[in-house]
User: Fold these one by one.
Assistant:
Number 1:
Amino acid sequence: MILLFGAGLMFRTIARMQSLALGFRADGVVAGSVVLPMSRYADSSDKRLVVDRMLARVAATSGVRSVALVFPLPFGNSWRFPVLVEGAAPDEEAAPRAMVFTASPGYFETMDVRLRAGRTFLPKDDHASPLVVVISESLARRVAPGGNAIGRRIRVRVPYLASFDDVDERPWRTVVGVVTDTEKEFAANPPPDVYVPYAQNPWSNHALIVRTDRPEATMFEPVKRALSAVDPALALSNVESMTDVIAEQGASGED
């Protein structure tokens, strides 16, 4: 009975998933968690270097079409933060709230998140370059009602940068791209999206995402080996298909 009940929940979740406009393509994507040990990668420059090596090594793995990092993984949490727009009243209570992601170049292409205006992240969007941001369509309409959000500047608190808790300490980031809205949770009104480049906000926790033409489960071990070849301390955990990640989240919400 327990097995039948669990199977019923999973089937209902998959049907629900298929009826949603996810804003990205989950099939063919493998996701897993990787943490950079602070004892080995304490400096931002060390994090950037090893991430570049990780992505290059995984990209060279047979069966991998594209690879990227993101934090947090969609359907991984429900953080929402106020987005302050240059020229608008600095009122956090009235400001639109969005989910904030850190992503490497290639994230939007790997997840098949459609670009609507401007551009996505490039390797040049690094620590030495002006701070940039990509936002989703619903937020773009709030940032520039009836106009073009490209070139506008916003302030947002990146979740894990405690030094930017104070509004006045948060840097202005220029909008360079607008992408389609994505589903991050099974909610009636999901929040809009804000993406900041990984190289401008290096962090130790990541979700590694890989797009493949092969059955997702066949890529689990090759991707783990690719990371280990860069550094044996880089362990990939919680590896599963993105479809399963979403289905499990939906099933837990129906318990």
Note: The CA atoms of residues 18 and 86 lie 38 Å apart.
Number 2:
Amino acid sequence: MDSTRLFRILLVCWAALAGCGAPACSGQSRAQCKPDTTWDRFTEIPLALKPPFDPAAEIHIHSLDDESAARRRLIKEAWGGKLPESVPFSIQPARADLEGLENIDSAEAWQSLFGTLIYVLHPAAPNGRAVIVHQGHASYAGRWSSGVGTLIDHLLSRGFTVAAMQMPLQGWNKGPWTSHAALIEARGNASLAQFIGPVIEVVNRLYDSYTDVSMAGFSGGGWTTVLAAAIDTRITRSAAVAGSLPVTFRNAYKEKVCIYHASDEQSDLELYNELSYEDLYVLGASDGRRQVQINNQYDSCCFYGVSSSLYAPHVAKAASGSWTFELDSTHKNHKLSTKAMERIDALLDE
């Protein structure tokens, strides 16, 4: 084979690979999946989610025994069978980024043994209650564009102590892995310890000092809130904003739009083969606790559309506590809106 012919073959192979680079095509060539441009992802439900599909069959938890067994499974996968009893330790950071927050009386920083930094913000007139606010992948400095900063300041104005967090490897949290994908590849389901462990440590430290501990999260923080509330029953109220959509539902949208954004931790854990997102929602509202899921109908990123109307009634029925869904149609962004903040307010007042 002459060098010119070899070069042409290599060029064709390279072009084929480039045509379906990850994560854009997620394993499908562009020729195999063409977006349906006549279909509206915001207002139409994918055909795959219509009968004979049964959204109730996605839920496997139907009793208190089922709840306990599922929670034990999560704890075993993450920590070998027992929740961490460690607590974050106080540190004096070189730079505490609290710019823009007006209702802080005092602030401190904690360091989780899992490597996560937490800012604990105290109000001028504390009401004796605490809320963990998880901002997901967003940097602390960029919290305002997502609406998380407004939520934090509002909670402080109401007298809540706020523990502000973000995901491992994001913003102020560094290494030792290069990405969430690398973390999951290295640790599999046990990577839950890195994602959820810092939240458990914060609850450990807050629990004896406050009358209750609630949690609210946006985007990746919404996903973290779902997992944390499913695992730790001390989180009495939880609100997950623009944080997840069940795997079967995401796959149905993907058949129409081809590219559906979901972070590695949303998709790549093997435990989703046994515990569905619907199961996780049920666990988050177990033991008489309350959880609300708030998704944006016109979200510019992910978890958009109206298909949640199919699974929400079944999750609400299966939960032994109170689980509700709120569709936010007031904007066209990936953010925590004023409407979402009002719903979180109502949750905390229930």
Note: Residues 1-31 have pLDDT under 50 and may be disordered.
Number 3:
Amino acid sequence: MSSVSSIRFICICLLFSNVYCFSTPRRTPSLIASPTTCRTSSRSGSSLEMSLTADHPKSSPASDDMKNEKESAKLSAFRQQLERTLRRSSENESKQKQKKRQTQTQSESPVMKVESLQEYKTIVAEERNKITVVRFYATWCKACRAIKPKFYQLARMHPEISFVEVPVTEQNADLHQGLGIPTLPFGHIYHPDAGLVEEMKIGKANFGTFAKTMSWYADGFCELNGVGDCSNPLTEKKSDVQNIGLV
């Protein structure tokens, strides 16, 4: 083959090769990740999911039940505490009302209660301005309970007279014994100038006599049936009070 023909052959080959290159479309780089990249991305995704799970754990039904039980227990405890507080406040309010009623009753009562020897000496024996009427009684005595309304009514009718009642207790048993109280109910009348002037039973049958005798001392005169002793009754019957040191 001559040199000219060989040159032509080379040129034709070069021409065909260039035509083939320009005619073949160019392929763009593949966007599909390689297996190594996929493995890396999967690993990073799992780690991200684990981190999200650790930061925000998923709630299970068992944990929800436990939360509900704790909340209900706290609510029930609060309700119980609130009920106890309301109960205590109502009890305190009722006690205060009861004390107020008792105070009002005692302040409005026309009869003063005496339960000790010192009180009896101060209120009864040392009284120098008013006539004092005393009722000795016991809470278990039926006759004493029956005569109480009449005694209080008599006290309201005579506000100028001091009315006192002395209950029988373990603390003042010596007071009743010292005054020689023979039975219950029993009454004493004290004059501011003469001390103890009358003592008698004041049961239901003879309470009228006791009230009439008291009115004689309050009015300053007494009735005499026929020919009786006209001596001044205010100078008598002081020895019983002096025996126990009340005068």
Note: The helical segments are 3-23, 35-55, 61-108, 117-125, 142-157, 173-179, 207-219, 239-243.
Number 4:
Amino acid sequence: MTRLQALFVDDDPAIRKTFTALLELEGFEVLALASAREATAVLAVRDFDLVVTDMRMETPLAGYDVVRAARNLPSSPEIIILTAYPLQTSDWKQQGAYALFMKGGNMGSLLSTIRDLADRRRATRKDPDDPPPDIRRKISMN
């Protein structure tokens, strides 16, 4: 089974560690980075299926740099923004993010969104070695 590739960007080491573990449990191979600068450099040379980025890192809107760099990838990855500060819905959608979640918010909703995006991504890949999503969930729950 081909693993989906995820980029997780956050300047907080504890959040990086936690989300790396969560994404790995969902079947992603994860690259976790600490800054938008690092992420945009990697996005210039590597493709991902999912990009999850914090908003405030080097600057208050550094996450948008990551979103824009991800939008330029040929794979058109799914993009999620995490933030502790409210953003206008029109702003983050216009930048090209699929979803925005508040840090400390509903983790179940975030995980559900990640699972849905992963399932959608796997379906478009049509990898014959990937089991259907409902079977994968049953396996991971055991």
Note: The chain has one domain: 4-141.
